[in-house]
Specification:
Helices cover about 60% and strands about 5% of the residues. The protein has a three-stranded antiparallel sheet with strand order 1-2-3. The radius of gyration is 18 Å and the shape is globular. It has about 150 residues and is mainly alpha-helical. A hairpin with a 3-residue loop joins strand 2 and strand 3.
């Protein structure tokens, strides 16, 4: 008895993680443009600390902030195609989020330098995302690279 086989190779765990995070970033980016899910939607600015819009009434967002989430999501989907790409996405993306965390803590929330914009909830979410993404890259990357070597 033969078993049907897939012509598509199974995804390595690192690829699955990058794909999942990519999808989450896409959803979050899209939700940032939906009134009601984003509170004070009428005060949504392109890029300014004056943007009073907040995703889920908690995370300060702007059009630029939402577009960055959408871009991160697309990058995750594209780079999840290979284990090496997924590893890079998680590692570099995590490092970028840690830099963004430090940036958010360093600039005043009412400063013109806070153009993304970021509030305290964003800062600590960026810290958690950075640690999680780097942790996933390190924990899953080794297995993924062995899968690519076959």
């Amino acid at each position: 008895m033969t078993t049907p086989t897939s012509h598509r190779a199974a995804r390595a765990p690192v690829q699955q993680a990058a794909l999942l995070l990519g999808l989450v970033f896409l959803v979050v980016g899209a939700l940032g443009f939906i009134p009601g899910i984003t509170t004070d939607y009428g005060s949504l600015e392109f890029a300014s600390h004056d943007s009073g819009a907040e995703l889920f009434g908690l995370f300060q967002v702007s059009i630029l902030h939402n577009l960055v989430h959408l871009a991160y999501g697309l990058a995750g989907l594209m780079l999840a195609g290979t284990a090496a790409g997924a590893y890079s996405y998680l590692l570099v993306g995590g490092a970028v989020y840690l830099v963004l965390w430090v940036y958010g803590l360093s600039v005043g929330h009412d400063s013109d330098a806070n153009f993304v914009p970021l509030n305290s909830a964003d800062d600590w979410l960026h810290f958690a995302l950075g640690i999680a993404m780097i942790g996933l890259a390190l924990a899953l990357g080794r297995r993924g690279r062995r899968t690519d070597a076959r």
